[in-house]
Amino acid sequence: MVKTKRVLILGGTDQGWQLAVQAATIPKLEVFFSLAGRTRQPMIPIIQTRIGGFGGIPGLRDYLQQEKIDFLINATHPFATQISQNAAIAASSLVIPYLRLLRPAWQKSEQDNWIEVESYEAAVSILSPLAQRVFLSIGRQELAIFSTLPDRWFLMRMVEPPSLNGFLPQGKVLLARGPFDLDEERSLLQTYKIEVIVSKNSGGNATYPKILAARELGIPVIMVQRPELERGETVAEIKEAITWLKNKLEND
């Protein structure tokens, strides 16, 4: 008789949610789904779900041991560096098979006008002479960095409202959740007379239309590059993660 195995999926992306739903249909596999809790109304599959941090590497190790987790899949955002590092270290220390599900980064085309930078601080340092009206499409965690430019106007789009305790750049907060389409992104840039976009290279389809709209309108994009990837096995597609899980179940 084949023993039921357990997988913990660290979510935070549409890919993670879809993976959890599909993995839950695999026989002899019990799925645990975890979210950091930064989004107030996250998409939660109808499976065992926990919300909140683990308390660093020790907390994650304890959870993996207490719940007798057999496999760990990290499907967090490409810029979620801390949990990604913690997951890789915790899995390695407990000899738990670990997989990173990471959607591919966007690739610059010949028609794109990208200025690629390594950090938000670098984006701030080159932003001032470029434009007066800026579209910040970076979420809400790093907004305060741009408040050092009081003479610029920012359109700031995010899913959740920013913290009332944080420093906000001058401008307008727009609450919206993707996916977005090309027509509405083009209209947004034109309506607010946007002269430059600051974006992180998140990859995926949900917010890529803003890049297409910028390309059409000749608007430059300051593209914050992804942090260095932690070591470990990585796949780009949900179907590859499902195959990985099935192979682990068969060979375990």
Walkthrough of the structure:
The structure is a single chain. With 252 residues, this protein is an alpha/beta fold. It has helices spanning 14-23, 56-66, 81-94, 120-127, 182-191, 209-217, 238-251; strands at residues 5-10, 29-35, 48-51, 71-74, 98-101, 114-117, 133-137, 153-158, 171-175, 196-200, 221-224, 233-235. It has two domains: 5-104 and 228-251, 3-Layer(aba) Sandwich (Rossmann fold); 114-224, Rossmann fold (3-Layer(aba) Sandwich), CATH 3.40.50.720. It is elongated. The two termini are 13 Å apart.
Overview in brief:
The chain is of the alpha/beta class and 252 residues long.
Low-confidence stretches: none
- Which outline best applies? elongated
Tally of domains? 2
Q: What is the annotated CATH architecture of the largest domain?
A: 3-Layer(aba) Sandwich
Determine and state the CATH class of the largest domain.
Alpha Beta
Major β-sheet profile: 6 strands, parallel
Mean pLDDT: 90
